[in-house]
């Protein structure tokens, strides 16, 4: 009996993380004051994040894009759903109407937005999808949010990620973890978080986000938060009996 149990447990696959580099191809996303494009910043962070996670040997990883490809938001979520992802992490960079706006913002899904600025951000991020979201489906997902176990897990991961990014990189976190109805989070059926890694409209942050060194630092901390989450939520492979 114990032997059979051990075999079953060791055959469990590693948790699957889908890493989404925001925008890409024809969609630049935000264009920074220093010239950096959001699609390049997100790809740099996402590919390094995937590399670190694979090297850890503790997760499997899929990227929604590994190069400068144009991919619809609906396609990104469908890819995560179809591949049976345990966690979806969408990487973005922010833009604001004031150059002084700066800092990290970490989001998970909710029905409402806390202010007009976030409404503008959501409109900008959602605009890249040419696909209309069926109203019934949107209502159904949002109505069931509070009942959904994955929503609670999204909230816990967002908190872990935000805390680690602000603490370990010494970056200012703007108003803590936030909630908003981003399309890509709405369409993903697993715990899902969107991180705005800094403001491209702020000169200092634009230059930093464009640097390989800072992209690697961000990837390292995001990877750390994912691995902590995997362990805490017991998404990791159950240990064989007797170990
Ligand atoms: Zn974006």
Detailed description of the structure:
- The protein has 243 residues and is an alpha/beta fold.
- The chain has one domain: Zn-dependent exopeptidases (Aminopeptidase), CATH 3.40.630.40.
- It has nine helices and six strands; from the N terminus they run H-E-H-E-H-E-E-H-H-H-E-H-E-H-H.
- It has helices spanning 2-10, 38-56, 73-82, 116-127, 135-143, 149-169, 183-187, 203-210, 212-232; strands at residues 16-21, 60-63, 87-94, 104-108, 173-179, 192-199.
- Strand 1 (16-21), helix 2 (38-56) and strand 2 (60-63) form a beta-alpha-beta unit.
- Zinc ion is lined by residues 22-23, 29, 38, 92, 125.
What's the count of strands?
A: 6
Question: What's the CATH topology name?
Answer: Aminopeptidase
Q: Give the cofactors and ligands.
A: zinc ion
What is the total domain count? 1
- Helix fraction, binned, reads 40-55%
Radius of gyration: 18 Å
Q: Tell me the structural class.
A: alpha/beta
Q: Roughly how many Å apart are the termini?
A: 16 Å
Descriptive keywords:
single chain; 243 residues; alpha/beta; Aminopeptidase; six-stranded mixed sheet; 47% helix; globular; disordered C terminus; binds zinc ion
Lay out the secondary structure.
Layout: H1 2-10, E1 16-21, H2 38-56, E2 60-63, H3 73-82, E3 87-94, E4 104-108, H4 116-127, H5 135-143, H6 149-169, E5 173-179, H7 183-187, E6 192-199, H8 203-210, H9 212-232
Parallel strand pairs: 1-2, 1-3, 3-6, 4-5
Antiparallel strand pairs: 4-6
This protein binds zinc ion.
Zinc ion (ZN) binds next to loops.
